Amino acid sequence: MVTLTNSALSSLPTPLEKAGIDGFFDNNFNLSDVSAFKPHPATYDMVAKYYGVEPSHMCMVACHLWDIIGAQAFGCRGGFVARPHNSMLDLQNLPKPDFVAKNLRDLAHQIITANVAI
């Protein structure tokens, strides 16, 4: 698992550090190296190239639908975490995430159950 953020580098603790879960991530990608912001394809491509994997072997997990749609357009799978007051948009022309859950535990279970290679 890695992070991919549009946020600028900072010496302040990240939200993952504050939550005490930063140790679960193998790498933290910042977009300053590609001079583009998500959902630009170069952002997801940076991660795929770093690990030498096809996009179909990656799954973007986010609570931002636009981020998931961008990753899916690049060829990744998408997992949406529906936080309070951040439910799925019901727009007919938008692609739907591959996985939708109310919390990370349920989302992880769905991904594992689907036997997704990420």
Could you characterize what this model shows?
The structure is a single chain. This protein has 118 residues and is of the alpha/beta class. The chain has a single domain, classed as HAD superfamily/HAD-like (Rossmann fold, 3-Layer(aba) Sandwich). It contains four helices and five strands, in the order βαβαβαββα. A three-stranded parallel sheet has the order 3-4-5, with helices on both faces. Strands 1-2 form a two-stranded parallel sheet. The protein is globular and about 40 Å long. The termini are close together. The model has no long low-confidence stretch (mean pLDDT 87).
CATH class: Alpha Beta
Q: Summarize the helix and strand pattern as letters.
A: EHEHEHEEH
Tell me the Rg in angstroms: 14 Å
Please count the helical segments: 4
Labels describing this entry:
single chain; 4 helices; 118 residues; 5 strands; alpha/beta; three-stranded parallel sheet; Rossmann fold
Describe, in short, the structure shown.
The chain has 118 residues and is of the alpha/beta class. The protein has helices spanning 15-19, 41-51, 65-74, 104-113; strands at residues 2-5, 27-30, 59-62, 77-81, 99-101. The chain has a single domain (2-113), classed as Rossmann fold.
Please describe the topology of this protein.
Layout: E1 2-5, H1 15-19, E2 27-30, H2 41-51, E3 59-62, H3 65-74, E4 77-81, E5 99-101, H4 104-113
